[in-house]
Amino acid sequence: MFPRVQWPDGKEFAFTIFDDPDFDTVENSTIVYSFLEQLGLRTTKAVWPICGNGRPKFGGVTCEDKEYLRLVTDLQKKGFEIALHNVTYHTSCRQDTARGMDKFYELFGHHPYSMANHSGCDESIYWGNSRLSGAQRILYNLLHFGRGSMHHHGHIETSPLFWGDLCRDRVKYVRNFTYGEINTLQKCPYMPYNDPDRPYVNNWFAASEGRDIRSFQALLSESNQDKLLREGGACIMYTHLASGFVEKGNLNPEFKRLLRRLSLLNGWFVPVTELLDYLVAQKGLCTISRGQRGALERSWLWHKVVHTRGRS
Ligand SMILES: [Zn+2]
């Protein structure tokens, strides 16, 4: 349906990572990012700009930690993209979300170009069962994947958690569906796309499911790397680089081997926003139809049922 993308500078495929800050520590992040930098990869690191004051479902260090802030601003200077993962690791009211987004601007000199919702934040936007439509939503409700709250309020104007207008005015790209397929673009050829039924998000993108060391390595197998190259595709790997990648101060050796192998292929290794901007320049922005969206939803639900047992 969509012609093969011509990548810049004679590159044959594109690869990047969107790394959520869950479980981040200064030590882990320093080790992982020195390695990515060494390989010449420039990826996207999502952060929490402000510290929470309650119990998180999944927590981690925030930009209020001086050492961590130094690390991420340094990454930004080196060409990594800094993105948003809600403003902190637990639910925030509108006022706190606005404060966190202002803080992001103050720290990084721009509004977040890209963001992903954090599990356990009820202000997440079009999240939980609002990710889905029609029959898919009914099925999701029955299976109740979230196990916690299915209802998220970021896009509901009457809620004290509403921040849809801030998202629309400040954030360019938001992550939605993830798939167990290395070529994200093959699973979601529309991306980045806008969805008329979800107007507070400007553009959506999909990702490949590499949430922890196990799934990341499985997806980055040698045969999958070769597939990505052969298909001339694009992979946006969604992950938590603090989930098992570093043990006792050492990076997992198999992860190192696989990523080094990938970095030696003729790929284009740029942050998520640069990759998405390029896709827009090549093929224009797509407005997704309900039929196309339904197919993405069904494919995502199937992936969750079979592979991830409900983890987002
Ligand atoms: Zn998260």
CATH superfamily: Glycoside hydrolase/deacetylase
Order of helices and strands: EHEHEHEHHEHEEHHEEEHEHEH
CATH architecture: Alpha-Beta Barrel
What structural category do the secondary elements indicate? alpha/beta
Mean of residue pLDDT? Answer: 94
Q: Write down the overall geometry.
A: globular
Number of domains: 1
Structure description:
The chain is an alpha/beta fold. It has a single domain, classed as Glycoside hydrolase/deacetylase (TIM Barrel, Alpha-Beta Barrel), CATH 3.20.20. It has helices at residues 26-39, 66-77, 94-108, 134-143, 164-170, 184-187, 213-219, 222-231, 253-263, 272-283, 290-308, and strands at 13-19, 44-47, 81-84, 114-115, 173-179, 193-194, 203-209, 234-239, 246-247, 250-251, 267-268, 286-287. The strands form 3 sheets. Strands 1, 2, 3, 4, 5, 7, 8 and 11 form an 8-stranded parallel β-sheet that branches. It has a two-stranded parallel ribbon with strand order 6-12. β2 (44-47), α2 and β3 form a beta-alpha-beta unit. It is globular, with a radius of gyration of 18 Å. The two termini are 28 Å apart. The mean pLDDT is 94. Zinc ion binds next to loops.
Element layout with pairings:
Elements: E1 13-19, H1 26-39, E2 44-47, H2 66-77, E3 81-84, H3 94-108, E4 114-115, H4 134-143, H5 164-170, E5 173-179, H6 184-187, E6 193-194, E7 203-209, H7 213-219, H8 222-231, E8 234-239, E9 246-247, E10 250-251, H9 253-263, E11 267-268, H10 272-283, E12 286-287, H11 290-308
Parallel strand pairs: 1-2, 1-8, 1-11, 2-3, 4-5, 5-7, 6-12, 7-8
Antiparallel strand pairs: 9-10
Helix pairs in contact: 1-2
The chain binds zinc ion.
Zinc ion (ZN) binds at residues 20, 22, 58, 85, 118-119.
